[in-house]
Design a protein that fits this description.
single chain, BirA Bifunctional Protein, domain 2, 2 domains, 7-stranded mixed β-sheet, 12 helices, 43% helix, binds phenylalanine
Length: 339
């Protein structure tokens, strides 16, 4: 018996010497100390021995078992340290390697300019209103005095969803929705995407972005319109920019005007950008037509208002000297990352 146990001890020591990983160690632990190990078997068979034999053999077995356990716990300590060392070596971080660049997206120039424009108007006390891209013919045309056979319908030809619904051609729809829902004083800007069935070319896109403004209160006059727009343009493009208002016609404003600004490229002396006129057309505006007010239950005897509208894309193109509107919608990173 003693011999057998010595053999067991020696073979355990031999095996333990070769262990080089936690998993191999576990395997040996089960083999030599587990429930099905030889040592357990010997212990189980002790019940067949006489009492005297039990005492003498039991002593030897316990001695050997203690020694084996001791060896195992010593080996565990060293193998644990060995594993840590190995992990540290394997997972070494080279802090001298250059870092990976993370590509961060950035704003499209339309959004950059839109944010700038919003800021200017918010500082003047305007609030932002929004409306649906798909709207009824009524909000897009009729409420704004553009009846079925009005020539402005073909100028602003759009995509019809069905007989009643269209993709809005301008954000003037929001004028009507706001006046229906709120009592004056009203002072809003309404930015948004608009749609027209125009062929795509360097200056036209079937989708573009617009901003409409509307002010309604007692005693609102053309002078308010002019001073507001002058302040906006100067904040946007610089105080040296000159503006002028030219009489025009819109069905929903009376009187109506277009506002021109002195050419950014030639400062007014005449060049190809301004077609030698020294000025560039920039927006439409006017005093809200009394019929439009009446339709929204605003009494034109008590209240008056002004409205204006412009293409944000056009502002972007003028501000950055971009000659092709398509660039703004193509998501070409080479182009976009310049802003
Ligand atoms: N809605 C007009 C357009 O899209 C612009 C405009 C708005 C003109 C408000 C006058 C007043 O062309």
């Amino acid at each position: 018996m003693k011999e057998k146990l010595d053999q067991l001890f020696n073979s355990a020591i031999e095996q333990l010497k070769k262990v080089d990983s936690i998993s191999k160690f576990e395997e040996l632990r089960v083999r030599y100390l587990g429930k099905k190990s030889e040592l357990s078997n010997i212990l189980k068979n002790m019940k067949n021995l006489s009492n005297e034999e039990k005492i003498s053999t039991g002593k030897i077995i316990n001695e050997i078992k203690k020694n084996i356990e001791l060896k195992f716990s010593e080996t565990f300590e060293s193998i644990k340290n060995f594993e840590i060392e190995r992990k540290l070596k394997e997972e070494i971080i080279d802090i001298t390697l250059p870092g990976k660049k993370i590509a961060i997206g950035h704003k499209n120039p339309i959004q950059i300019v839109l944010d700038e424009i919003k800021e200017i108007f918010l500082n003047m006390g305007f609030v932002i209103e929004e409306g649906p891209d798909i709207d009824t013919e009524y909000y897009n045309f009729e409420a704004l005095n553009i009846l079925k056979d009005h020539p402005a319908r073909s100028e602003q030809d759009t995509f019809y969803i069905d007989d009643d619904y269209v993709l809005r051609t301008h954000t003037s729809t929001i004028q009507i929705r706001t006046m229906e829902n709120k009592k004056p004083p009203i002072k809003i800007i309404a930015p948004g995407r608009v749609y027209r069935s125009d062929e795509l070319d360097a200056t036209h896109s079937p989708i573009f972005c617009q901003m409409e403004g509307l002010v309604v209160d007692k005693d609102i006059r053309m002078s308010h319109l002019k001073s507001t727009l002058n302040k906006f343009i100067k904040s946007m493009f610089g105080s040296e920019i000159k503006t002028k208002f030219r009489a025009h016609h819109f069905p929903f404003t009376e009187p109506s005007a277009e506002m021109d600004v002195s050419c950014f490229a030639c400062k007014g002396s005449g060049c190809s950008v301004c077609k030698n006129s020294g000025y560039i057309e920039i927006l439409g505006c006017g005093m809200v037509h009394p019929d439009v007010l009446r339709r929204c239950d605003v009494d034109p005897e008590e209240y008056s208002g002004f409205a204006f509208g412009f293409g944000i894309d056009r502002m972007v193109m003028l501000k950055y000297g971009i000659e092709d509107i398509r660039l703004l919608y193509e998501s070409d990173l080479k182009f976009l990352s310049q802003f």
